[in-house]
């Protein structure tokens, strides 16, 4: 189906919340177009604290928000900012056999996927911290080969655990598609 949809506005105020690393920003939009803004210091250990404080402050400052339904739209820039600033945990990654270089190849990381002269950005997981496990999936998502219990034990308790401790990674990531539920 193609065409254009027209958004309907039912007159309920809308509060937009953006949880950031330093501040949590609030914008309240009222029927008729009036906008009200509020800024609350973020709580890195528990971002919900700033959301609660900010909503309470908005309700106190803007009585029209209380006593009726409002819409709340929520987003966060914490992860985006961490990526942009390079402030992420040191990561090890477990991948399917044959996929070790997928992050290094990653043409989509370039500003232009077709300009081979462009400098690549730093990858989140360097190749020496990517570990293969003997399992494969078809292009349709069916398991072709599954990792054995011994291989998983070797990776998690042996080879991977030793390399992770040696390299001081904070996080080990794996694709949920790699392992059948065990």
How would you describe what is shown here?
This protein is of the alpha/beta class. It has two domains: 14-83, 2-Layer Sandwich (Nucleotidyltransferase, domain 5); 89-174, no CATH class. The chain has four helices and nine strands. The chain has helices at residues 47-61, 78-85, 102-105, 149-167; strands spanning 14-19, 23-29, 35-41, 71-76, 91-96, 130-133, 136-137, 143-145, 171-174. It starts with 13 loop residues before the first strand and ends in an 8-residue tail after the last strand.
Secondary structure elements and their pairing?
Blueprint: E1 14-19, E2 23-29, E3 35-41, H1 47-61, E4 71-76, H2 78-85, E5 91-96, H3 102-105, E6 130-133, E7 136-137, E8 143-145, H4 149-167, E9 171-174
Parallel strand pairs: 1-4, 5-6, 5-9
Antiparallel strand pairs: 1-2, 2-3, 7-8
